[in-house]
Write a structure and sequence with these properties.
Layout (H helix, E strand, L loop, with lengths): L1 H16 L3 E2 L2 H7 L14 E5 L7 H12 L4 E7 L3 H7 L4 E5 L11 H9 L4 E4 L9 H11 L4 E3 L2 H4 L15 E3 L3 H6 L9 H12 L2 E4 L5 E3 L4 E3 L12 H14 L4 H27 L2 H12 L1
Parallel strand pairs: 1-10, 2-3, 2-5, 3-4, 5-6, 6-7, 7-8
Antiparallel strand pairs: 8-9, 9-10
Helix pairs in contact: 2-11, 3-10, 3-12, 5-6, 10-11, 11-12
């Protein structure tokens, strides 16, 4: 017990030394852009989500709807053609398009040329939710990093594709945000043990010039320059689909012009605050990611 207390104290001392900012409602409010009365949909971000596969059709829907509820102006959703009709039926406002896939319903390398066209003019891109770990996934991630002229979020299977190939991050043309949970963090070479969590995330961020949003109790956001600690959230959010919601929220904020670390800090705080509200209303056992999306307008208002 004393060893854990000492380790926790050392972590807090290091966070203080690195001028860690505890994200607050006031900070998030100051980061959210105010809307010009003469604005149009193109002013609030053109964002692209690349997600989904056979058996994982909920991921692109949750991410796209979360981006929509967080204010994105135009949302494009690329999914394997095997699940296109399912996802398209579930999404009204986002614009869904099919991409070539293999026999297992996962993206293959033929999707790259279409993605390169779709990325043109986008303000932010999300790759990974529900894509699966297909043989072409590394090629897809590498192509996006090489060509995207906007910030790129790698989430879920977008992160898993980098296992053993983390050097691909060095080829990125634009800022990259990684959103791993502990298992994905290990695949990137990180150490999620409580006494190593912060130092390991900082090392990853510094080594590759990326922003790391390390999910979990007291989510950490470590950028090349700044560190944020998120105080919101609860165990009821530890369910499939919650991470897709967070990724979609982050995508929307990046598309509206927030810098990567600030967008990650704001998205994590809002995500946790909405989760806390849902836990009060439905309880930690009964709340769902869909409930969180439905409650987002309340907090953003």
């Amino acid at each position: 017990m004393l060893t854990k207390l000492h380790a926790g104290l050392r972590r807090m001392q290091q966070l203080q030394k690195d001028h860690c900012i505890v994200t607050s409602e006031a900070l998030v409010d100051s980061l959210l852009p105010r809307r010009d009365r003469y604005a149009h949909k193109g002013d609030f971000g053109r964002v692209l989500t690349v997600a989904g596969s056979v058996g994982f059709t909920g991921a692109p829907v949750l991410a796209a709807n979360a981006a929509l509820r967080t204010g994105a102006g135009l949302i494009f959703v690329g999914v394997p053609e095997a699940v296109y009709s399912i996802v398209a039926q579930k999404l009204d406002e986002p614009m869904v398009f099919p991409l070539p896939c293999d026999d297992a319903g996962r993206l293959d390398s033929r999707a790259i040329s279409e993605l390169e066209k779709r990325m043109e003019g986008c303000d932010a891109c999300l790759v990974g939710p529900g894509l699966g770990r297909g043989p072409a996934m590394l090629d897809v991630v590498q192509a996006v990093l090489n060509r995207a002229a906007c910030p790129v979020i790698l989430d879920a299977d977008g992160i898993n594709a980098l296992e053993g190939h983390i050097h691909v991050l060095g080829q990125a043309r634009s800022p990259v945000i990684l959103t791993p949970h502990d298992g994905e963090f290990r695949r990137l070479g990180g150490d999620p043990a409580p006494e190593r969590r912060y130092e390991s995330a900082k090392a990853l961020a510094r080594a590759w010039g990326v922003t790391v949003l390390l999910k979990g109790h007291r989510t950490l956001i470590v950028g090349p320059e700044q560190v944020y600690l998120n105080p919101t959230g609860n165990p009821g959010m530890a369910t499939g689909g919650s991470g897709d919601v967070l990724a979609g929220m982050l995508l929307a904020l990046l598309g509206q012009g927030l810098a990567p670390a600030e967008a990650a800090a704001a998205a994590a705080w809002l995500h946790g605050a909405v989760g806390d509200y849902c836990a009060e209303v439905w309880g930690e056992y009964g709340m769902t990611p869909t409930d969180m999306i439905a409650c987002l307008p309340h907090f953003l208002k």
